[in-house]
Amino acid sequence: MKLITLGTAAGNSERNRANAANLIICGGKYYLIDAGEPVKALLFSRGLAYTDVQKVFISHCHEDHLGGLMGLLNCFFREHRKAPESDMTVYLPEMAAQYPIEEFMKVIHRDIPDGKLSFKPVESGTFFDDGNLKITAYPTDHLEGRGPSYSFLLEHEKGRLLITGDLRWGDFGDFPYAAIANEPAVCLCEAVHCPLEKVVDVVRDLPIKKLIFTHYKTSLLKQEYDTFLEKTKKLPYPVVLATDDEEFIIKE
Ligand SMILES: [Zn+2]
Ligand SMILES: [Zn+2]
User: Fold this and answer.
1) Which of 46, 90, 92, 166 is most buried, taking the most CB atoms under 10 A from its CB?
2) CB 32, CB 53: distance < 8 Å
């Protein structure tokens, strides 16, 4: 399983830092976890056909995770006649998002062939398994009662990748321990909603094979990066701060 951290920026994106979007490639298929801006440009830049990415999973409905979806859907269906057998499924944490997305497609005059775009709910537990990739959702408390949010555990053959999504402000008290309690995984962990000193305490003793931090604020200062290196160097597994468009291979 290959992870490509297309976008690692939280909140504000910049010219060279995109919002949350992670591309998973395994078994010759493509899956997108979160669709922050400008995900359509990032996929295009990698030479992918839009119609290759037919499964999109949204961890929660904040704009920096969802805001690029409309552009992506527009491109997918603009190109659809070149791959008429393709169809798109978007897994939403809140089905209330479906109607405005569909209405936006009408506003921009993007016709969608019958039956080619479907929306399904993200649900706690294993909610997706196409025989190639299995995804299990763990509820988190990022929105503090205002709506659902999820972490995702992805499993392909012996590769296991835990994507935390956004977690609770201040303490990461909703970190999805259950996902790795019985079997370790590589962890793609957000790094913006909790002071780094605390994050290190949360993850230090967990069965993590490699910790990849993402979703840190834009314009990370040199001093803060030095602090990151200092705080994480004693963790008992490899730790990296992902950059946009970085590739990671997740095997056993
Ligand atoms: Zn976010
Ligand atoms: Zn968020």
Assistant:
1) 166
2) yes
Ligand nearest to the CA of 11: 1
Quote the mean pLDDT of the chain.
Answer: 95
What structural domains and CATH numbers belong to the chain? 2-249 (3.60.15.10)
Helix (H) or strand (E) holding 29: strand 29-33
DSSP, collapsed to helix, strand or coil, labels residue 105 as helix
Give the model confidence (pLDDT) of 26-39 as tens digits: 999 999 999 999 99
What spacing in Å lies between the alpha carbon of 168 and ligand 2's midpoint?
9
Provide the pLDDT confidence category of residue 225 given band limits of 50, 70 and 90. confident
Q: What is the pTM of this model?
A: 0.96
Beta strands in 66-182 (DSSP E): 88-92, 117-121, 125-129, 134-140, 149-156, 159-163
